[in-house]
Amino acid sequence: MNDHKRPAAKTTRRRGRELLDAIHQAVLLEVAETGLPGLTMEGIARRAETAKTSLYRRWTSPEDILIEALRERYPRENPTADAGGLREDLVAAIGLMRELMGDRILGPAMLAVNSEAMVRPELHRRMWTEVYDPQGERFTRRVMEHYAALGHIDPARVNDLTADIGESLMLKYAVDHPGELPPKGYEERIVDEVLLPVLGVRS
Amino acid sequence: MNDHKRPAAKTTRRRGRELLDAIHQAVLLEVAETGLPGLTMEGIARRAETAKTSLYRRWTSPEDILIEALRERYPRENPTADAGGLREDLVAAIGLMRELMGDRILGPAMLAVNSEAMVRPELHRRMWTEVYDPQGERFTRRVMEHYAALGHIDPARVNDLTADIGESLMLKYAVDHPGELPPKGYEERIVDEVLLPVLGVRS
DNA sequence: TCACTAGGCTACGATGGCGTATCTTATGTG
DNA sequence: CACATAAGATACGCCATCGTAGCCTAGTGA
């Protein structure tokens, strides 16, 4: 059954950037579906419609592909502190996390990776050194420090613990409601009912 | 080399409770080490030093064994509200979570299960219906409601969000510091710096 | 236009888990 | 003490992934 002219889909051979993007896409979809431990070279190859050998030529493990994909795709948003006052900036900072969770591809992928990272410290370290660190992060804290410097809030109230509250509540929501996003207005509630009181801002 | 009395280790054939306990122990250790997706009938059998067939006789999947083991071993502590006043009770309630995290066997096992559950809603549901629900839980909330009923705090401040803060911060600590326990005094900081201000208790 | 390179295809033995069947034997009960 | 039952041991065919080898070919750029 060998045609002289095969169907276009088969004759077009992707290379370089195009192929790389397809593989990155594939590894993210794959990990979202099967979980990190279920991530396999064959699976990635199947989904990317490429050959296993092509993968082995460049990477030595599924995890390497994944980390590379994440490093490229992970959002590097620049949080504009002082965009709308303390309250709005806090809401926006926490909202960044919702955006990530809500991303149809990145969201589930990050979830899968992070849940593995809880159990594998090396992976956790790797994510920080190879994915998160290059970007910065810690938005909420930056916002808090900004307004503390302006004298709007007591600097003593800004620390590792208080800066973590917002993200931790979003995280817990994800843990308690797998596959769901927090309801509309959740960030606002976090800010109004928790963060502002903690920062000593009276409503 | 056949003594009438062989070495206890080989001649003693465990059954019933004794064997069951060994299997439960094995599945917990196993899942802590390999993660839930790595959990396998053969692995459990090896670790429990029993035969794979003995496992298949009673269960149909590694996960079933695990859930059963968790249901039996999961602590069913009765939170004594009103043991030492609002602050102390809150610290104690959050401390229950540390106890669990610190348990050398149950801690890692729960971690592994929960991280999988984030990605597998059915597992999440199963944990709630078959492990958590039978016990009650929601300690922090119970404490808060107790003192709200006494008029010590504003009932309006007690809700799903505020009741989650303590556990969520402990959870985030676990996520950010795999394999570590929060430092001594962490629960106290959570209560003093976050919960009390949120509940409107002035320090 | 031609040669080189990157990508694609197939096959391979190895490993390890799956779930089942079959047989042997220890152990507590009646 | 004999027996029914629960536990242990061994073996099987099946399947998926592993990582590598060998070869083929499309696309690119000199």
Write the layout of secondary structure elements.
The structure is a homodimer of 203-residue chains.
Chain A: H1 8-11, H2 16-34, H3 41-48, H4 52-58, H5 62-73, H6 85-102, H7 106-117, H8 121-132, H9 139-149, H10 160-176, H11 186-198
The structure holds a DNA duplex (30 and 30 nucleotides).
Account of the 3D structure:
The first copy, chain A, has 203 residues and is mainly α. Helices cover 66% and strands 0% of the residues of chain A. Chain A is built from eleven helices and no strands. The radius of gyration of chain A is 21 Å and the shape is elongated. The N and C termini of chain A lie far apart (75 Å). Residues 1-10 of chain A have low confidence and may be disordered. Chain A binds chain B through residues 35, 37-38, 108, 111-112, 114-121, 124, 157, 159, 161-162, 164-165, 167-169, 171-172, 174-176, 178-179, 189-190, 193-194, 197-198, 200, and chain B through 35, 37-38, 108, 111-112, 114-121, 124, 157, 159, 161-162, 164-165, 167-169, 171-172, 174-176, 178-179, 189-190, 193-194, 197-198, 200. Chain A binds a DNA duplex (30 and 30 nucleotides) through helix 3 and helix 4.
List keywords for this structure.
DNA-binding; homodimer; 11 helices; disordered N terminus; mainly alpha; 203 residues; elongated
